[in-house]
Write a structure and sequence with these properties.
Length: 178
């Protein structure tokens, strides 16, 4: 059966059986290999993607549940590596073997989308179920805090000259000064 879904902002149509796990559609049908196979039972988190912004385990999510929805994979966070989580992961040097990191990063980015300033307890709760055989958990937590800082700085960026020359904004600035 044919299913339509949006993957990383691109409308895709896939013709696969309804019970086909989203993981295999992503990897085998769409040739996006950032999402990893770990356990096949939704226990390790390696296969985590976003389904309409929510972190889900793609190894047990059938394509029929993803139809008509927006899927974001690691490749979809940002094409040029400028997502705060990607920057933080690099700066903190989180990966050791790296196998679980796509799932870790996808879970972390979903957490930060909901909670831009998480506590250690928030991070631990959100990341529970993402298994790292190399034990990089402390670096993961540190990177999530770093990503939150980066994201906060990005949202507080100063206005550009072109933004300030817009008539509505200029009028608002003038009226504030009076």
């Amino acid at each position: 059966m044919a299913y339509k879904l949006t993957v990383n902002g691109r409308l895709e149509t896939v013709d696969v059986p309804a019970e086909t796990p989203l993981l295999w559609v992503i990897r085998d049908t769409l040739s996006l290999h950032g999402t990893k196979y770990g356990c096949g039972m939704a226990l390790c988190g390696c296969c985590t993607v976003h389904l309409d912004g929510v972190a889900v385990r793609s190894c047990t999510t059938p394509i029929s549940k993803a139809a008509g929805k927006h899927v974001t994979t690691l490749e979809g966070l940002s094409a040029d590596g400028t997502h705060p989580v990607q920057i933080a992961w690099t700066e903190i040097d989180v990966p050791q073997c790296g196998y679980c990191q796509a799932g870790q990063m996808m879970t972390a980015s979903a957490l930060l989308a909901k909670n831009p300033k998480p506590t250690d307890a928030d991070i631990d709760a959100a990341m529970d179920g993402n298994i790292c055989r190399c034990g990089t958990y402390l670096r993961v937590r540190k990177a999530i805090h770093k990503a939150a800082e980066i994201a906060a700085k990005q949202t507080k960026a100063p206005a550009t000259a072109s933004e300030l020359t817009q008539p509505v904004e200029l009028a608002a600035i003038v009226s504030e000064k009076e």
